[in-house]
Amino acid sequence: MEVQRLLEQVEVQKHLQIREVHRFLASKGI
pLDDT of 1-30, one tens digit each? Predict the structure, then answer.
């Protein structure tokens, strides 16, 4: 089934969001 691929997509999205947040905070100098 596609469940495994779906979970992988979720993990990738989470990692991308976390990276964006870190970049944002870094740009703020926090």
Answer: 799 999 999 999 999 999 999 999 999 987
CA distance 15 to 22: 11
What does the alpha-carbon distance between residue 18 and residue 24 come to, in Å, rounded to a whole number?
Answer: 10
Annotate 1-30 with DSSP letters as a single string: --HHHHHHHHHHHHHHHHHHHHHHHHHHT-
Model confidence, pTM: 0.61
Return d(Cα 8, Cα 10) in angstroms, integer.
Answer: 5
d(CA 12, CA 18): 10
